[in-house]
Amino acid sequence: MFRDFQAISGSIRIIFRKGEKCFSTQTQKRNDEARKEVAMARLTERAFENAVVRLRDGQGALGQSALDVLHEHREELANQMLARLAGSDEFAAMLERSFGPFRRLMTYYECAMMEVETKFRVLDAEFGLQHDRNPIESIKSRLKSTDSLAKKLARKGFPMSVDSIEQNIYDVAGVRVVCTFPEDMFSLAESLLSQDDVILIERRDYVASPKPSGYRSLHLIIEVPIFLEREKRSVKVEVQLRTISMNFWASLEHQLRYKKDLPNEEAAAVAAELADLAETAADLDRRMQVLRNYLDDGEE
């Protein structure tokens, strides 16, 4: 009888432990959801308040009428903020459902980046043999983060799926090539695109037509083959070619432009100064290229 009581007591303890664990899990889930709701509310409120401050401080009397409009559309702003956060949740759910295919696709992009890097290293070595100098200062590659992918899919209105990433996002894989002189950029681009296994999808020349910010670079979206165990796949890669000075400016501009809490007037002044510095950097490139050409002509 005592053994029976022990067995029953043991079973009851197990049931209680399971119940406690289940209750703890449910409580934790409810707490997580509550924290998430509070965070979303705070984020929405902060975005609204920041917009109000910018309008009030930067637009004077015009800002007053804009404030009235903003207050009227407060609910709409909140819904937009929540929709963006929901987009991230939708992306997370997609990853949970399709993690295997997603990881496989990211591996394909990594292989494509290695392929493109190798092509540039071969071109750099050959150029060094012919001209006794190397045109490439550095090569870096990066794979777009899951957070960036989620935001871009949501912003563009594309479906949250692995197929959608492959079909619609062209800069998942990125290779940045920093060159010594401007002519090297275009020479390398021409050599790369002349290869019969490289397909040009898109070309954006921000050297000939800089962005309003002053940003300069040559962007290429290309498609290259990767050879797997039993198949060949074509994968898109974004290539950015810059000079040393362009890269220097772009790196510092990224840090300086996005400093927080600058009044509109100061932000505009910073943007104007950065654009002026971009022109100074471009002038430095031009002068260095002229000097390089002069020395090359003298050696001939």
State mean pLDDT (0 to 100 scale).
80
Question: First CA to last CA: what distance?
Answer: 108 Å
- Helix percent band: 55-70%
The portion of residues forming beta strands comes to: 5-15%
User: Which structural class do you get from the secondary structure elements?
Assistant: alpha+beta
- Which geometry do the CA atoms define? flat
Q: Round the Cα radius of gyration to an integer and report it.
A: 28 Å
Largest sheet: 5 strands, mixed
What's the tally of helices? 8
Give the low-confidence spans: 1-9, 36-41, 54-64, 79-83
Order of helices and strands: HHHEHHEHEEEHH
Number of strands: 5
Please list the strands of the largest sheet in the order they lie side by side: 1-2-5-4-3
Could you characterize the architecture of this molecule?
By secondary structure, the protein is α+β, with helices and mostly antiparallel strands. It is 69% helix and 15% strand. The chain has 8 helices and 5 strands. The chain has helices spanning 2-72, 74-97, 99-131, 146-156, 162-168, 182-193, 244-257, 264-299; strands at 136-143, 173-179, 199-205, 218-227, 232-243. A hairpin with a 4-residue loop joins β4 (218-227) and β5. The longest helix is centred in the N-terminal third of the chain and has 71 residues, at 2-72.
SSE blueprint and pairings:
Blueprint: H1 2-72, H2 74-97, H3 99-131, E1 136-143, H4 146-156, H5 162-168, E2 173-179, H6 182-193, E3 199-205, E4 218-227, E5 232-243, H7 244-257, H8 264-299
Parallel strand pairs: 2-5
Antiparallel strand pairs: 1-2, 3-4, 4-5
Helix pairs in contact: 1-2, 2-4, 7-8
